[in-house]
Every structure is written in structure tokens, then in C-alpha cells.
Specification:
Elements lengths: L11 E4 L2 H4 L8 E4 L2 H14 L2 H18 L1
Parallel strand pairs: 1-2
């Protein structure tokens, strides 16, 4: 049942095939056209540059944003 899959989750898909990212049965919040290995290597490299409090600050900002939307 793809329509009811994780209704409150943010769905992100990384795929090298753009046809897979545009399937009508998918309901993605973010579609990333990339080779998964390349994407993960870049994601890891970018997160290594972050300061420890950067991630925490990002999560706190996200929580504040969610509270405003509620």
C-alpha cells in the first residue's frame, strides 16, 4: 500500500535512474538524481566539516519550525 506508506515521514530517494524518481506511485519529499555511492561519499564529506553543535542547532531550528506549523 504505497499511498499509506509512512504518511508523517519525509521521504527522500537517491537514484541514478531519473525514471525511477518520477514514478507516479512514489510520493517523495526530495528526489536526488545521483549515484548512491557518490551521494553517500559527498554526504559523509560534508557532515565531517560540520561542527558538533551545527547538527544540534539544525535540529533545534527544525523543532522550532515544527512548533510554529502546529
Amino acid at each position: 500500500n504505497y499511498k499509506g506508506f509512512a504518511p508523517n515521514a519525509k521521504k527522500i530517494m537517491v537514484n541514478i535512474d531519473p525514471g525511477e524518481l518520477t514514478k507516479p506511485t512514489l510520493s517523495l519529499d526530495l528526489a536526488i538524481w545521483s549515484d548512491a555511492k557518490d551521494f553517500m561519499e559527498e554526504l559523509f564529506a560534508q557532515t565531517q566539516k560540520m561542527k558538533p553543535f551545527s547538527y544540534l542547532s539544525l535540529q533545534l531550528l527544525r523543532l522550532k519550525t515544527l512548533k510554529v506549523q502546529l
